[in-house]
């Protein structure tokens, strides 16, 4: 318990104090994450995941962007941030592989202000509303590498309007639509999701 309190007061609070809009990493120098540009992998990942994320969000989506593969190195951190609301509304992290000495979970805040630690295994992915939900990896990574592909989508206003729905506004809460569907179907509503 003393270790958890020390973490909350020293590591986590410093991360929260550094909240940064679209901050990629607080790590500088040779320990910065490396990017391995894979256009074909990114294109295939986006086209494969688009219908999955559309179903999860309950909205038609347009492709925003993909980054991959991003490989974090020993000592890497990710400052607490939200992503761009223009193109990064509905997102997924597809975890490729890691070689760690200890778990390095994604910390993510839900719509009620609760924080969750999501520890992905290789081949798993985390679905989340990246423009609304603060997320970070505030504790330094301990290990050799941690690689993932990041995909981002945004609501397709033209398809929404053609279906008689109002045009998308970035202040809308996607989870609200999932909650309405969940109440109607008696299924639990998820804002943070995992799929392997």
Report what the structure shows.
There is one protein chain. By secondary structure, the chain is of the alpha+beta class. Residues 11-25 and 178-196 have low confidence and may be disordered. It has a six-stranded antiparallel β-sheet with strand order 1-2-9-4-7-10, with helices on one face. A four-stranded antiparallel β-sheet has the order 3-8-5-6, with no helix packed on it. The radius of gyration is 17 Å and the shape is globular. The longest helix is centred in the N-terminal third of the chain and has 19 residues, at 39-57. It has four helices and ten strands; from the N terminus they run αβαββββββββααβ. The chain has helices spanning 2-17, 39-57, 157-162, 174-185; strands spanning 34-35, 61-72, 78-81, 90-100, 106-109, 115-118, 125-128, 135-137, 143-155, 193-195.
């Amino acid at each position: 318990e003393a270790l958890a309190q020390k973490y909350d007061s020293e590591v986590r609070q410093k991360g929260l104090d550094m909240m940064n809009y679209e901050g990629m990493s607080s790590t500088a120098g040779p320990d910065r994450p490396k990017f391995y540009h894979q256009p074909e992998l990114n294109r295939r990942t986006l086209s494969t995941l688009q219908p999955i994320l559309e179903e999860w969000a309950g909205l038609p989506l347009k492709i925003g962007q993909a980054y991959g593969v991003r490989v974090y190195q020993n000592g890497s951190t990710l400052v607490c941030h939200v992503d761009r609301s223009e193109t990064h509304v509905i997102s997924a992290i597809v975890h490729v592989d890691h070689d760690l000495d200890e778990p390095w979970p994604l910390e993510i805040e839900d719509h009620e202000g609760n924080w969750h630690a999501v520890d992905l295994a290789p081949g798993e992915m985390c679905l989340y509303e990246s423009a609304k939900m603060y997320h970070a990896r505030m504790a330094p990574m301990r290990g050799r590498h941690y690689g993932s592909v990041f995909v981002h989508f945004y609501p397709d206003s033209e398809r929404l309007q053609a279906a008689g729905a109002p045009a998308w506004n970035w202040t809308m809460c996607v989870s609200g639509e999932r909650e309405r569907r969940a109440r109607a179907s008696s299924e639990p509503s998820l804002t943070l999701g995992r799929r392997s």
